[in-house]
Amino acid sequence: MTDQMLAWQTERFTELATTPADGSSYVVQVRPEQVVEIAFDGVQRSTRYPGGMALRFARVVRYRDDKSAAEADTVDTVRALAAASGSTAG
């Protein structure tokens, strides 16, 4: 990730923030408006995340300004991918 991309992300997600970034938490809630294309190597079960899954070796491929949030994949899509590949998520 370049310094330019990091600066862009910081500005973009600050614009979308619905909670103040006061430094007391590592979590900032944002409006679901930015679509991000993510590549990953696999899916595994996880009790840590609300969806019950974790993406293995996830990485940002690009930001999809050509897509709306309504066009983004959902947790159900990831579950279907995991089931089709015989992954341990389910």
Number of strands: 4
Structural class, from secondary structure content? alpha+beta
Number of helices: 2
The arrangement of helices and strands along the chain is HEEEEH
Biggest β-sheet description: 2 strands, antiparallel
Oligomer: single chain
Radius of gyration: 15 Å
Distance between the first and last residues' Cα: 31 Å
What is the percent of helical residues?
25-40%
Shape: globular
- Compute the average pLDDT: 88
DSSP strand (E) fraction? 15-25%
Poorly predicted regions are none
Describe it:
By secondary structure, the chain is an alpha+beta fold. Helices cover 28% and strands 19% of the residues. The protein is built from 2 helices and 4 strands. The strands form 2 sheets. A two-stranded antiparallel ribbon has the order 1-4. A hairpin with a 7-residue loop joins strand 2 and strand 3. The N and C termini lie far apart (31 Å).
